[in-house]
Structures are given as C-alpha cells and as structure tokens.
Amino acid sequence: MQKFISWRILEKLCCNLLVINCLGLILSSCNSPSSNNAIASDAVKVAAAENNAIASGQFTNNNWMQLWGVRKAGQWGLNNTAVIKDPSGRFEKILRVRYPAGSASPAVSRKNHLPLGGAQFYADLGITPKNALRLSYYLRFSENFDFVKGGKLPGLFGGVGNSGGDIPNGSDGFSTRFMWRRNGAGEVYAYLPTSTKDGTSIGRGNWQFQKGKWHHLEQFIVLNQPNKNNGQVQVWLDGKQVLNQKNLTFRTTNKLKIEGIFFSTFFGGSDFSWATPKDVHIDFANFSLSEVNQF
C-alpha cells in the first residue's frame, strides 16, 4: 500500500513539473523578440488573405479561358501555352509557357523576324473592380532556364493595363507585372502615372527566383486616393514578405480600379540582347484573387 502511494505521489510531482515547463515555454513565447512577432503577424496576414479569396483561376477545366474571363483584346502567344499534368505531382494541372531559343519581346520578334516566345492576356476572373486586391500564384522556372537580362511575369492591371512604353495618364490604366532580372533577381515592374520612358522598377533584387523550384508569389496592391500618393504594394515569396513599398500613385480618379490579372510573360527587354539562347519554359499554377482591406 505504501509503495502504491509513493508511486502516486511521484506521478503527481512529474505532472506538476510538466505543467511548470509548459508555462515557461508559453511565457517565453509571449516575451519573444519583435522579429518573431513580426513573423507571426506575417503568417496571420497570409492566412487571412487565403481565406478571403474571391476568385480562383485553375487549369483543370478545358474551358478555363472562358471561366477566367479572358479578354480578346491584348492577347497573343497562346500557341506557346499548354495545359499539362504537373510532372511534380504538386498540382493537378498546370499551364506551361514556352520560350523558344532566340525569342524576346513581341516587338523584338517582329523587328528581327525571330520566333515569338511567351504569351499574354488580360483576365478578370469574374470579379468587380477593386480598390485593393491580392494576387497569388505559383510558378516554376525550368531546370535549364537562363535568366539572361530579364523578362516579364504576371501581375495586376486596371483600365487598359498599360505596357510597352505606353505611360499612364492617371485615368486610363496601370499595370504591376513582376519581372525576373539577371541571375533571377525579382522586382515589380509597374506602369504608373509617375513612370517616365518605360515602367518603374520597384524592389529590384529584394528576392531571388530559383530554377526548378515551385515558388509561391503574392502581390498585394492598394490604390491611392486621388491627389494623394498613398498607394502601396507588398510582395511575398514563399510566405515571406520581401517588399513593402508605400507612397505610390496609381491613379488620379476613383473611377480607375484594379480589374484583374495581366498574364504577360516573355524575355525582354527592347532588343535582341534580352533573348533566350535556348528553349526554356515556365510552369504556372493555382491563381487566386483575394480581398484586401489595408496593410
């Protein structure tokens, strides 16, 4: 009987010690450095954005372009795209975009009688225009990808979705495509009323793309109030915030809003020096648009 009581006492002491240790861990977590709090806050933002998705762009349906609300105006290079089964098995279906050797921007291809690489289209995914929006998608550069000098990647747009040297006037449109640069350096390449000759490079080199790896890329845009430069763009790569740019001007009128995805991808660049030296491809998957109230 005494042996049984001793074991019960020992068991109770062990439980008490376990509780004390757990409380210590909790208190330690609560008193963690601000950097840890920032990471937790970032994770909450990402989770919240995922839960607020208002439109999803997949490639599982043969009529995906119709479901996406792809516009006829501004589209080209669709013969360079193919919906295939994901070789990695991570996604059911993906969109593979080809860039033949020697291809660059459409203008360079036309001027030099070179193959056309990449593709472009505008899609609204059935949403109503927004003052703030989050774009999320996955992409993977082929193992043999040569980043050369750079190229375009999908982003958001409003109005006519300005590009190709067409500088916005504040009421006609804007665009916020991504770009890869030399050695995979990333940036937002935006056409804004404040742009000059071409687009505005934002956050160049703040993150790095890798070959042969699926990346989760997110872009949060909040449009400015007219007559104020309080627009904002944030970028997340693989769940980590890599850009937070404030004081931007997207528009001069409230009538101009974010309308959807500007799917635009090619090497370039305004001349042949941007062209890919070999056949390469990029895979895209799991696009979505989400409500964003504020940062």
Explain briefly what this protein structure is.
With 295 residues, the chain is of the alpha+beta class. Helices cover 20% and strands 35% of the residues.
Task: Name its key features.
Jelly Rolls; alpha+beta; disordered N terminus; eight-stranded antiparallel β-sheet; 295 residues; 4 helices; six-stranded antiparallel β-sheet; globular
Structural account:
This protein has 295 residues and is an alpha+beta fold. The protein has a single domain (57-291), classed as Jelly Rolls, CATH 2.60.120.200. 20% of the residues lie in helices and 35% in strands. It is built from four helices and 14 strands. The chain has helices at residues 2-30, 34-51, 64-68, 106-112, and strands at residues 53-57, 81-85, 93-99, 119-123, 132-141, 150-159, 173-181, 186-191, 200-202, 215-222, 231-237, 240-248, 260-265, 280-291. A hairpin with a 4-residue loop joins strand 7 and strand 8 (186-191). The protein is globular. The model is unreliable at 1-48 (pLDDT under 50).
* CATH class term: Mainly Beta
Tell me about the largest β-sheet: 8 strands, antiparallel
User: What is the C-alpha radius of gyration, as a whole number of Å?
Assistant: 24 Å
Structural class: alpha+beta
Broad shape = globular
- The CATH topology, please? Jelly Rolls
**Helix coverage percent of residues?**
10-25%
If classified by CATH, what would the architecture be? Answer: Sandwich
Oligomer: single chain
User: How many domains?
Assistant: 1
| Amino-to-carboxy terminus distance | 65 Å
Q: What is the strand tally?
A: 14
